């Protein structure tokens, strides 16, 4: 068989030749594009860099000062509101704890001879334990809603 009739001559060499041409052409295109963008546009890039520097050094500091001032005012207002709310809540609930405690101690639960059910009933807990549980539940709920 002649040399041009082999698999290497008919398939492998043309594929390798075209792949090399595509690869080198793509490299030339990328290199030309990079030169056009980075080397020929230095003046435009310098203007863009100066504007970014001005934004970073001057405008962001002015904006940051305003943001901090707004945050301080809003946090102080929220703190004042929260203190007023807690004061109002505590003044409204002065006798509520005593009334709830009396209600829980006066509740008569008859477990009808089933002693195990009587041991595991929530009404058999001490008032202090129930109030501690409610207090911790309130703290956890506030932590969830204020997070």
Would you kindly provide a brief summary of this structure?
With 147 residues, this protein is an all-alpha fold. 82% of the residues lie in helices and 0% in strands. It has helices spanning 7-39, 42-92, 96-106, 115-119, 127-146.
Termini, distance in Å? 82 Å
Rounded to an integer in angstroms, the radius of gyration calculated over CA atoms is: 40 Å
With helices defined by DSSP (H or I, 4 residues minimum), what is the helix count? 5
Note the beta-strand portion: under 5%
Give the structural class: mainly alpha
Task: Name the descriptors.
single chain, 147 residues, mainly alpha, 5 helices, elongated
What does this structure look like?
- By secondary structure, the protein is mainly α.
- Helices cover 82% and strands 0% of the residues.
- It is elongated, with a radius of gyration of 40 Å.
- The relative contact order is 0.03.
- The model has no long low-confidence stretch (mean pLDDT 78).
